[in-house]
Amino acid sequence: MELPLSRYQNISLGQILDSSSSSAFDSKAFFFSGSQLYWTNGRKRSTSFSPLRCSLVKQTLRPKPNYKPSKPHEDTEEKTNIKHTKENKFSFGLCDQIEKLVFKRRYQEALELFDFLEIEDGHGVTSSTYDSLVNACIGAKSIKGVKRVTNHMFNNGFVPDQYMSNRVLLMHVRCNMLMDARILFDEMPQRNLVSWNIMIAGLVDVGDYVEAYRLFLTMWSEYSEADSRTFATMIRATAGLGLLYPGRQLHSCVLKMGVSDDIFVACALIDMYSKCGSIEDAQFVFDAMPQKTTVGWNTIIAGYALHGYSEEALSLYYEMQDANVPMDHFTFSIVVRICARLGSLEHAKQAHASLVRHGFSLDTVANTTLIDLYSKWGRIEDARNVFDRMPCKNLISWNALIAGYANHGRGEDAVELFDKMLCEGMRPNHVTFLAVLSACSNLGLSDRGWDIFYSMDSIHNINPRAMHYACMIELLGREGLLDEALALIRNAPFEPTMNMWAALLTACRIHKNLELGVFAAEKLYGMGPEKLSNYIVLLNIYNNMGKMEEAASVIHNLKQKGLRLLPSCTWIEIKKQSHAFCSGDKSHAQTKEIYQYLDGLLVEISKHGYVPENRYLLPDVDEKEEHMLLYHSEKLAVTFGLMNTPDYVPLQLVQSHRICHDCHNALKLISKVKDREIVVRDASKFHHFKNGSCSCGDY
DNA sequence: GTAGGGTTAG
Fold first, then answer.
1. A350 near A381, Cβ under 8 Å?
2. Which residue is nearest to nucleotide B6 (CA to C1')?
3. What does pLDDT average to over chain A?
4. Could you tell me which residue, A478 or A593, shows the higher pLDDT?
5. Which of A122, A323, A559, A650 is a Cys-bridge partner for A156, taking CB atoms 3.0 to 4.6 Å apart?
6. Confidence of residue A580 (pLDDT cuts 50, 70, 90)
7. Residue range A303-324: average pLDDT?
8. Protein A452 CA to nucleic acid B10 C1', in Å?
9. How far is the CA of A219 from the C1' of B3 (A)?
10. Binning pLDDT at 50, 70 and 90, where does residue A576 land?
């Protein structure tokens, strides 16, 4: 499987840095942080980092109202003296309490107590209390707290040493105040390796990998400083960029510096190699780990899973168990996801049970994966149960269930859940809208769809993307509003995408508008001349219209480019035994019975109005294979994103129902399949079938 | 002398 970022593999870091004009530091976005006044020990400021930016900082620095001291001092000599004596005692007690609360991880309470310290004179506050307050802010992720603590230090003339400077920097980074953190960092009178590491890690955390690299290269070239922590962070940045070549360079540096045995570095390397497309290198690093930790195992298992090697990933998980390595919530999240991909309900149930047994039944990520897993199997009530029992739901959890409902014909529930989500104050994102618009589309709720579509920008401040447009086009198309759908494409604030034209094309096929259909198909054909699906769609349309000359020209073009249809694959699990099927392959021992069953199902769905399209698929297709190809043609459409369907299709005949919009009967079919303990899934991403080699039998 | 690093979900 080609990884999405593998196209960058041959690009050097230099090219990335040169070509990137993006910077996290937009001069307009600067705001007052107090840093220039904060570092007061008189050391010369460094100008080696973006002098231009520093001058911008000076130009644009202006105090923000909420950054001012909360209680200005009344500094008459007499009052100060009296208060100082009284409050020192008071402050000491208070400081002590704050430190104790932070030690007990009661961060919010500690910050509340800090209120009293703010009101009074804080000259007696020591580094130790500030250190605790830093932990409180980080623990509570409180931006307000960061500002209060920083101001308190400044107002009370506290001069931080190197240690406290780094702690303050860390506090800003961990509370997602990257702009402030960067200003603090640039203005620091003195930095050490820890300061650099904190700043670089902060940039990596927010995904600004290029800027992290810039900083790292500056550090490396000017100071020749870096340790295992720096490398672990930079390897993570490389993984984020998907750059194998710089990743290898970092690996070399790690070896030369003798920090390759560091567990953090090893785990980061495994992850980096996995994400950059080299699972062999990941395995090599894993094998070389002197001590294989939980994170190490998690990372290599996730790596195999990422590459589609689900069985290998699962056997590694069993190896991990045999090695008595403790498992954590990461392990179970990864394993549940693997089971979802494997399409094995048996494995999934075991993973779910293990998760509960090991005490991770409350974990948000693992539970969200379970929701996704059960939804994809159509076990939507199980998904709902998991969701309802979750003590802490985040946006992804909501999205998973809404999408689950939408993809299984439970549009009403999806829209209802979307409304509930808004009522509970959860802010939707573009994924939420994709799911809920898809639900509206399935239900034929064009008015509600429009309302939701418009609300994206007007209420939720989210610009609809091409996929949202495609959803709306599908919705309008199903209602037969082809002109409206075409107008939406033409009025889109960006170039229409293939998905948008494909949605229109589907609508044209449903409503037999061949002229608009051919227009859409030709657009598609022009947009992706190397995409096989576009040839097929156009070919089908020409054939349906009786335009034989045009059809012949498409076939000619197809042959010239050497494109051909690879066999489609599906496999099913029946009573814990998996069976794979490819187009035209009849080597299975029960081929005859299977075909009889499929024919029976076809007859059954035909009773509900399904009419197979006339297909003149491709040249050189054996007549005997045509029957098989018929079953796979919808799947092909799904694979190429021509229809809005879930990744894993319970039964491809269900797709036929979706084509004629008979969700009710599609669901009836799904439950019928479930009763027989049959699970069918799309095999197109599975490694056994890479390079078109399909085989039945063992698997 | 303190502080900074790695893996998961839609």
1. no
2. A264
3. 75
4. A478
5. A122
6. low
7. 94
8. 19
9. 19
10. low
- Any idea which nucleotide's C1' is nearest the CA of A431? B10
Which pLDDT band, with edges at 50, 70 and 90, does A680 fall under? very low
Q: Which nucleotide is nearest to A295 (CA to C1')?
A: B7
Cα end-to-end distance, chain A, whole Å = 19
pLDDT recorded at residue A559: 79
What confidence score (pLDDT) does residue A14 get?
55
Classify the phi-psi angles of A578: left when phi > 0, otherwise alpha if psi is within -120 to 50, otherwise beta: beta
Distances (CA, A) of A507 to A397, A452, A482, A633, A636: 32, 21, 7, 17, 17
pTM for the structure as a whole:
0.70
pLDDT at residue number A145: 95
Q: Which nucleotide lies closest to A432 by the C1' atom and the CA atom?
A: B10
Cα distances from A75 to residues A72, A79, A85, A464, in angstroms, run 9, 7, 15, 56
Please, what sign has the CA dihedral across residues A664, A667, A672, A673? Answer: positive
More confident residue, A24 or A584: A584
Residue at shortest CA–C1' distance from B8: A330
What positions of strand B are covered by protein, i.e. any atom < 7 Å from a CB?
1-10
Contact A32, A179 (CB under 8 A): no
pLDDT at A671: 42
Q: State how far the Cα of A190 lies from the Cα of A207, in Å rounded to an integer.
A: 26
CA-to-C1' span, A301 to B6 (A): 14
Write down the pLDDT at residue A574: 62
Residue type, A650: P
Contact A571, A580 (CB under 8 A): yes
- Å from A553 (CA) to B1 (C1')? 79
3-state secondary structure (DSSP) of residue A584:
coil
Spatial distance from the CA of A334 to the C1' of B6 (Å)? 16
Please say if the pLDDT value at position A666 is more than 60. no
Looking at the predicted structure, is the pLDDT value of residue A403 above 70?
yes
Residue pLDDT, tens place only, A594-610: 777 777 877 877 777 66
Confidence check: pLDDT of A521 > 80: yes
DSSP secondary-structure letter at A646?
-
Helix A329-342 and helix A294-306: axis angle, to 10°? 20
CA of A269 vs C1' of B10, distance in Å?
27
Measure, in angstroms, how far nucleotide B1 C1' is from residue A137 CA. Answer: 23
Q: Return all residues near A477 (Cβ < 8 A) that are at least 6 apart.
A: A485, A503, A504, A506, A507, A508, A510, A511
With a CB cutoff of 8 Å and minimum separation 6, the contacts of A402 are A414, A417, A418, A421, A432, A435, A436, A439
Domains and CATH numbers, chain A: 27-207 (1.25.40), 394-459 (no CATH), 465-563 (1.25.40), 569-615+625-692 (no CATH)
Question: How far is Cα A226 from Cα A249, in angstroms, rounded to an integer?
Answer: 14
A475 pLDDT exceeds 50?
Answer: yes
